[in-house]
Every structure is written in structure tokens, then in C-alpha cells.
Amino acid sequence: GAVVSQHPSRVICKSGTSVKIECRSLDFQATTMFWYRQFPKQSLMLMATSNEGSKATYEQGVEKDKFLINHASLTLSTLTVTSAHPEDSSFYICSASDGQGFYEQYFGPGTRLTVT
Amino acid sequence: KQEVTQIPAALSVPEGENLVLNCSFTDSAIYNLQWFRQDPGKGLTSLLLIQSSQREQTSGRLNASLDKSSGRSTLYIAASQPGDSATYLCAAYGTDKLIFGTGTRLQVFP
């Protein structure tokens, strides 16, 4: 149990375009979903926390107008990178939890975004 | 602000050695601590989750301990194998978020 999927696994887009990444909890209801970013040879950095039906809470330094997060249902959250630039190229990983922040998080397989 | 540090940053050992990976955190008020494995270009694989009321967890050749008072966790890998080569991440659960450590890149050579 506790499976989280992400789609797509890899995406290449041109600079200035937008790209949407989906995160789904397949066998449980995710009260809270998290989005992380990982640059090469670095650890995961939390970008934002989203609760179903509420606005996402963004970490300091993360532009909320650039990284749009929607958590419309208890099984789906989306991250849209708007007006992507090459520096947005990264590995994006989502996680889902059926409770608050200190509940165990289940991680998706990640999405590799390359902006050309 | 919680900070999680892992030592060593990289480790290269011959097959068969017993290994100790260290994780330290600055704020002892954590709920749980979790160890993950990440292969190059891949997502995270959960290895062990230690709840705050526990002191250790074991799975196969892996044993993780937690000492909240000293702000430390240790991952012990027995009889290492080339297939254990990966990056190992520890992560501390706070009230509202999970903070990841800096990672240890492990290479086990035959």
C-alpha cells in the first residue's frame, strides 16, 4: 500500500513555456502533499506544502506565481512551472501523507524537467 | 531552524565491510526520523522509519538507531555488497515538514 505516482517521469520543454506535473496517491487519501526539488548532487529541498482544498504554503525563496500548486482532491496535486527557464531544470519529487506534517510521507518516483 | 547533516559525505569501501553512516540534527524536538536510499537519477526508497518513541529499527542487514537527546541517528549496514552502492539520505520529521540531510554517497566495490 501507500503508493504515489508522478506523471510525466521526464519532460523537456522550451524556455518560456509552462509544464504541469501530476502527483497522485493511488491507494490512500492524501490530506497533505509536498513538493520537493533536487538539483544534481544535492539533497531534496521542500518547495511547498499543500492541503486539499487550501492554498499551498511555500517555503522561503520559492516563487508562488512561478510554481503553481493545486491540490483539488484527496488523491491529486499538480505543480505547474510557469514560464520555465533553464535554471528551473531539476528533479521534482512529490510526497503524500494522510495526516499532518509529522505523519509519514510516501514519495513519488520523481519527474526530471529539462528546459532548453 | 532544523538542520540535518550527514557524515561522511562520500564513502568508498570494499565488499563485505560493515558500515556506519551518521546523521545529526540540530533540533531534538523531532517526531520521527527516516532513512532513504536513492539510486542515480531515481526517486527515494524508504529503508527504515524510527518513531520518536523508538530507539532503533532493523530490516535485514540494516539497523538504524535514534538518540534524540544527542541529536543523532546512525545507519548500520552489515556485510556491504556492491548493490548497496547509492546515496543514503536521512530525514527528520518536524511539526509540519520533513527536513532532509545532506546525504552520503556510498560506493561498494567488489
Q: Profile the largest sheet of chain B.
A: 6 strands, mixed
Characterize the quaternary organization of these chains: heterodimer
Q: Compute the average pLDDT of chain A.
A: 93
CA-based shape of chain A? globular
Helix/strand/pairing category of chain A: mainly beta
Assess the beta-strand content of chain B as a share of residues: over 45%
Residues in helix, % of chain A: under 10%
Radius of gyration of chain B: 13 Å
Instruction: Determine the fraction of residues in helical runs of chain B and give it as a percent range.
Output: under 10%
Which class best fits the helix and strand makeup of chain B?
A: mainly beta
> How would you state the average pLDDT of chain B, rounded?
94
The geometry of chain B reads as: globular
Which series of helices and strands of chain A comes N to C? EEEEEEEEEEE
- Give the termini distance of chain B in whole angstroms: 41 Å
- The parts of chain A where pLDDT drops under 50 for at least 5 residues are none
Number of strands of chain B: 11
Largest sheet geometry of chain A: 7 strands, mixed
Helix/strand order of chain B, N-terminal first: EEEEEEEEEEE
State the low-pLDDT regions of chain B, or none. Answer: none
Number of strands of chain A: 11
Distance between the termini of chain A: 37 Å
Description:
The complex is a heterodimer of chains A (116) and B (110). By secondary structure, chain A is mainly beta. Chain A has no helices and eleven strands. Chain A has strands at residues 4-7, 10-13, 19-25, 32-38, 45-51, 57-58, 67-73, 76-81, 90-97, 106-107, 111-115. In chain A, the strands form two sheets. In chain A, strands 2, 4, 5, 6, 9, 10 and 11 form a seven-stranded mixed sheet that branches. Chain B has strands at residues 4-7, 10-14, 19-25, 32-38, 44-51, 56-59, 62-67, 72-77, 86-93, 98-100, 104-109. The model of chain B has no long low-confidence stretch (mean pLDDT 94). At the A-B interface, β5, β9 and β10 of A face β4, β5, β9 and β10 of B.
